[in-house]
Amino acid sequence: MSNENYTYQTKSPGTVFIISAIFVLGFVLWGFVKPDQLAATANTALDFTIETFGWFYMLVAAFFVSFIFFLAFSPFGKLRLGKPEDRPEYSFYAWLGMLFSAGIGVGFVFWGVAEPVLYYVDTPLGQDVENPAEAAQLGLDYGIFHWAFHPWAIFSLVALALGYVQFRKDQPALISSAFYPLFGNKVRGKLGQGIDVLAVLATSTGVATTFGLSAMQISGGLSYLTGLPNNAFTQLTIIAIVAVLFMFSAASGLNKGIRYLSVINLTVAALLLIFVIVLGPTIYLLESVTTSLGAYISNFVPMSLTMTPFSDSEWIGANTIFYWAWHISWAPFMGMFIARISRGRTIRGFIGGVLLVPALLAVIWFSVFGGSALHLEMNGIASIADIVNDTVELALFATLQEFPLAGITNGLAVLLILIFFITSADSASYTLGAMTSRGSLNPPLFAKITWGVLIAGTAAVLLLSNGLEGLQTASIVAALPFSIIMSVMVISMIKMFTQDRNKEKQKAREHQKMVMKEEILDELEEEIDDFSRDSLDSEEDSPSSNTKKDK
C-alpha cells in the first residue's frame, strides 16, 4: 500500500515537552559545570544497579527474547499492526533500511571490529583459553551475542505494543498508551505523564551520547585518513554540519528524508560488506560466518543465563549486563520509531523482519569485520588490538587500511557513519517530537528541530567538558525502572491480543455460521425447485392430464 493512503494528525507540544526539556537542560548543566561529579554519581549508581540487579537484567532480557518468539509462533502472529484491511506502508527494503538507520546501525559500525578484538584480549568471563584461535572465536561469539537477538527482541517488544495500540486501538503515540488495556483512561493522567517523561529522558540522554560517539568516530576517521586534528574543535564542527543536514532531512518529512537516506545507507553498508568478503581472506571469512552462526545457535541459552556467582569475575557485569541495560535504555526510542514505520504488518511478519533479519546480519557483519581484524592481529599483519585499546573509534579504519583500495573503503566508511549520524538524529528528533506532542504521529517541525538542537547542544557541551561518559552512564541507570515498565507491558499486550484474537475467532465463527446457513438455504431452494419440477412432470405424465389434452 502506498504511504499516501495514510494521513496523520499534527498536535502541539504538551506538558511532557516542558518537563522533559527542563530535566534534560538540568543534566546538561550538571555535566558542563561538574562533569566529574556527574560521572562519579552515575558510576556509583550504575555499579550498584549491576551488582544488585544484574541477575534481574539477565533473566528479564532472556524472557523478552522468549516472549517475542512465543508471539511469532502463537495464533497472535496473525494479528495485524493496524486495522484488518491495512497493509505495509513501506517496502521491505526501505523498512529494513529505516530499522538500522534509527540508530542501532551506528552500534554495528562502531563495535563490529572493536568488540571481538577487545574480547580476544580480555576473554569473556575470565576464561582460560588454550590457544589464540579459541580466544578469537570466544571474542566473536560474545560480540555477536550482544548485538543479535537480545537487543532486537527488546526493541520489538516496545514497538509491537506501541504499533498495536496506535494503529489498531487509535491511541496516541506515547509509551503510556501501551498500558491503556490495563489502566484505561488513567494513563492520560499523572501516571502516564510520569512514564512518558522517563521514556523521553532515557531517549534524549541516550541519543545525545550516540551523537558524541559518532562525532568522535567521524573525527577519528578523518584524522586517520587526512591528517586533520582529532580534537574537540573538529568534533564540534562535525556536530554543527550534521545538525544543519539533519534539519533539511527533518523538514522534508519521514517519507522523504529518513526513507531515502536509509535506503542509501543500507546499500553503502552492503557494498562495504561485500567488498571486504571478496577482497579479504574470503574462505576464512565464510568459515568464520558459518562457525559463528553455529556457535550462536548452540550456545544461545547458556550464554543468556550464565553468571559468575562462584568467582570474582566482573566481566559479565561490565559487558553483557551493561549492554542489556544500554539496549533497554534505548527501547523507548527504537520501539517508538519502529512502531511508526511498521503499520500494516502482521505480528509474525514484523518479528521476522525486526528480529530474525537483524540477528542474521549481526552474525554476518561481526564475523566479517571482526573476523578480518582478528585475522590481521593473529597473523601479525597489523596491531589492531593496540589501536582498539588506545583509540577504539579508529578500529574500523585501521582494519580497512590493510585492504586494497583503502582510500575508497575508508571514505565509504566515513560516509556510512555520517549518514547513520544524520538519520539517527532525524529519527530521534521525530520520536521525541511525537512523544512530547501528545502522541502526534506527525509532530510539528518546531518540536523536531527543538529536540534536534537540544540533543546536538548536549553532545557538544559534554564533549567539551568530558561529561559524555557520565551522561551515558546516567541514561543506562534509567533502564532499571524501564525494564519493570516493559515487564508490565507484556501483561498488557497479552490481555490486548487475547481479547482481539477472541473477537476475530468469534467473527470467524459467525461468518462460518452465515456461510453454512446460506449453503443450507441454497440446498433447500434447490430441493424445493427439484420437487416442484418433479411434481409438474408427474402431473403432465398422469392419465387425467392426457385425457384433457385429447379433448
TrEMBL record:
It is a multi-pass membrane protein. The chain crosses the membrane at residues 12-33, 53-73, 93-114, 144-165, 197-220, 232-251, 263-286, 321-338, 350-369, 403-424, 445-464, 476-497. GO terms for molecular function: transmembrane transporter activity. Belongs to the BCCT transporter (TC 2.A.15) family. Residues 531-551 are annotated as: Disordered. It comes from Salibacterium salarium. PANTHER family: HIGH-AFFINITY CHOLINE TRANSPORT PROTEIN, HIGH-AFFINITY CHOLINE TRANSPORT PROTEIN-RELATED. NCBIfam families: bcct (TIGR00842). GO terms for cellular component: plasma membrane. The keyword Cell membrane applies. Keywords: Cell membrane, Membrane, Transmembrane, Transmembrane helix, Transport. This is BCCT family transporter. The lineage of its organism: Bacteria, Bacillati, Bacillota, Bacilli, Bacillales. InterPro entries: BCCT_transptr. It is found in: Cell membrane. Its main location: membrane. It holds the Pfam family BCCT.
